[in-house]
Amino acid sequence: DVKVTQSSRYLVKRTGEKVFLECVQDMDHENMFWYRQDPGLGLRLIYFSYDVKMKEKGDIPEGYSVSREKKERFSLILESASTNQTSMYLCASSSQDQPQHFGDGTRLSIL
Amino acid sequence: AQKVTQAQTEISVVEKEDVTLDCVYETRDTTYYLFWYKQPPSGELVFLIRRNSFDEQNEISGRYSWNFQKSTSSFNFTITASQVVDSAVYFCALMREGGSEKLVFGKGTKLTVNP
């Protein structure tokens, strides 16, 4: 079975902090994705990557950056966290034309 | 542009009732994939089904069935004899074949099955 592991289920940080969300997949997938999920808005794509060191902006990249130094790991970075970034963050991975497999999610609160 | 609409925000049924979740999509592509995912209260998204745009056969998996109709751009999901464990948010999604494998999600339908 595909396993997508997000480093934390719950995280509390303060405004202005630099926040790292880590995601690791064990299926050698080329593609990896970061979404945020908010009530009434569904899932929105922040960034995705289709190869090591490659990244593409999704629908809402402002305030975020990503890093993919190794194929299995995709990190989401909040450079200076703000309260409007309080949300559920979901990581996913996939290979070509195949379904995306999701991690358990990280509930991030910015105080 | 691609778009997925799940018009039903919330549905509440009593156990053993049948329930259908609607999904309507928009795309200019001739080849694409459609998906359904389930998100139980624990939070993780669970993949349920993938459908290729060339395959309009309906699919049944246990109590779950899917009706794909290209003529109406719909990919509806029916749960027969619903159970409390079916309570979740269900997402329909669309993906262009090839390319970047980006998924376009609907906003989800929250299903509550009451005992």
Structural write-up:
The complex is a heterodimer of chains A (111) and B (115). Chain A has no helices and eleven strands. By secondary structure, chain A is an all-beta fold. In chain A, the strands form two sheets. In chain A, strands 2, 4, 5, 6, 9, 10 and 11 form a seven-stranded mixed sheet that branches. In chain A, strands 1-3-8-7 form a four-stranded antiparallel sheet, with no helix packed on it. In chain A, strand 5 (42-49) and strand 6 (56-57) form a beta hairpin. Chain A is globular. Chain B contains no helices and twelve strands. The relative contact order of chain B is 0.34. The model of chain B has no long low-confidence stretch (mean pLDDT 92).
Rg over CA atoms of chain A? 13 Å
Would you tell me the overall average pLDDT of chain A?
A: 93
Distance between the termini of chain A: 37 Å
Characterize the main sheet of chain A.
Answer: 7 strands, mixed
Q: With helices defined by DSSP (H or I, 4 residues minimum), what is the helix count of chain B? A: 0
Helix content of chain B: under 10%
Radius of gyration of chain B: 14 Å
Rounded to the nearest angstrom, the distance between the terminal CA atoms of chain B is 41 Å
Low-confidence stretches of chain B: none
- What overall geometry of chain A do the principal axes of the alpha carbons give? globular
> What's the total number of strands of chain B?
12
* Interface with most residues: A-B, 27 and 22 residues
Q: Tell me the strand percentage band of chain A.
A: over 45%
Series of secondary-structure elements of chain B, N-terminal to C-terminal: EEEEEEEEEEEE
Helix and strand content put the structural class of chain A at mainly beta
Helical proportion of chain A, percent range: under 10%
User: Could you report the average pLDDT of chain B, rounded to the nearest whole number?
Assistant: 92
**Count of separate DSSP helical elements of chain A:** 0
User: Major beta sheet of chain B, specifics?
Assistant: 6 strands, mixed
Which segments of chain A are poorly predicted (pLDDT under 50) over 5 or more consecutive residues? Answer: none
> What's the count of strands of chain A?
11
